[in-house]
Amino acid sequence: MNVRELKSVHFIGVGGINMSAVAKLLLHAGVKVSGSDVQANDQTELLKEKGATIHIGESAEHIPDGCECVIVTSAAPMSNRERLAAQERKIPEMTNFAFLGQWFSDSKTIVVAGTHGKSTTTAMLGLALEAAGMDPTVIVGSKVPDFPDGNLRIGREDLFVVEGDEYARHFLEFEPFGLVLTNIELDHVDVFTSMDALLESFHELTGKMKSEGILVANMSDDRVRRLLETEAQLLAERGVRILPFTKEDANGNGLELTVPGEFNRMNATAAKTMAEALGADPNNVENALADFTGIWRRFELLGTKDGYRVYSDYGHHPTAVLETLKAVKETFPDQRTVLCFQPHHRNRTKVLFNEFVSSFDEADVLILSEIYAVAGRDEDDDKDVSSENLVEAIRERDREHGRVREVVFGGAPKDALAKTFELAAPRDIVIVMSAGDIDNELRTLMDV
């Protein structure tokens, strides 16, 4: 099947942040797009406005006559009625990332990969290349205010920048000319049962790089450094340039950024290094990075309420929590940080439990919502894992360190937010952090 010749494509899980970007890409190319999702969101509504046929819920009847391909989210189980109907009708099926890998197979593809910072670095790189007049096509796992389509920028077909998702090894669908490695930590523990399993996928990714390519790597990350030590000879034999950067580079390169924190300085340094290696003018790159104000759900200011600022953040891994809280303290050293956190995925919470307990140290007030259970990804063995367990362990840690602060189990998202607003005071910095559904509740309360 030549994906470039498709005329009608159906999406299962079309409201997802990457899925919706692919759907927009096909609409732009003149392809007839239909799709379904379990619930409506801003992306399903936007796709309707752009001419897609969108259904809420699943039904075999949603797949239109003449459909030539079904693109399916990895979150959709094999028992999904639309997947079963497509199989019965012998309609080819592929994931969104497999589709992108084929659609851009002849392009110069730049993949941004790593456990943390992928979305921000991808957005920074795309904006830097745009400012330099290089006109890239960009797909981000978030929404970028300066991109008309949010998660998609349509540009040249032969220069493609994409956030490479390690979940389900999706990033292996690409053969990168350029690869950015931000960091490597154990995550998606339902897919990667060990660090070795995760590292294996990153080794495979570097092995798929094209000859004479460019690899930008965070050498302050021990696992990235060891990965490249193992792969260095093979990469050198294929003429791949390795461009290292470190925390010292990020903190000393003089980049002026609006977004706070060392982690954003690292993201910006990675984007700058790759953009300039691709031929972008350094002045254009630095100006674009200085103008960058952030992306959707990455320390995103939603507004003020009763004299305190309210931010939304997508952090759901202990390191992301810790680094975001450090950035807040760096930016607002004289103000209290009130964190409302909804853990994402019971199995992740169980496996990374001890790391989570220490990740909240920089919060002055902490409210934990109940864990967001991910459909199809939580095992029966994990059903008793609760945020209440975390609250007890965090309180014990505070007692051991002689610390007194509010650490509260908030229950359901709506109740947790009510408790958060009750405990917040004027001049506080309030952060609601999660990859789960509490963000929807927060935006409703904040009327954004």
Structural account:
It is a single chain. Helix content is 38%, strand content 19%. It is an alpha/beta fold. The chain folds into three domains: 3-98, NAD(P)-binding Rossmann-like Domain (Rossmann fold, 3-Layer(aba) Sandwich), CATH 3.40.50.720; 104-291, UDP-N-acetylmuramoyl-L-alanine:D-glutamate ligase (3-Layer(aba) Sandwich), CATH 3.40.1190; 300-446, Mur ligase, C-terminal domain (Protein-Tyrosine Phosphatase, Chain A), CATH 3.90.190.20. The strands form three sheets. The protein has a seven-stranded mixed β-sheet with strand order 8-7-9-6-10-11-12, with helices on both faces.
Based on secondary structure, the structural category is alpha/beta
Name of the CATH architecture of the largest domain: 3-Layer(aba) Sandwich
Estimate the global geometry from the Cα principal axes. globular
Helix content: 25-40%
> CATH first level of the largest domain: which class?
Alpha Beta
Mean pLDDT: 95
**Number of domain units:** 3
Q: What is the third-level CATH name, the topology of the largest domain? A: UDP-N-acetylmuramoyl-L-alanine:D-glutamate ligase
Assembly classification: single chain
- Total DSSP E strands: 18
Radius of gyration: 22 Å
With strands numbered from the N-terminus, the spatial order across the biggest sheet is 8-7-9-6-10-11-12
Q: Provide the low-confidence segments as ranges.
A: none
Report strand %: 15-25%
Distance between the termini: 43 Å
Helix segment tally: 16
CATH superfamily of the largest domain: Mur-like, catalytic domain
Largest sheet: 7 strands, mixed
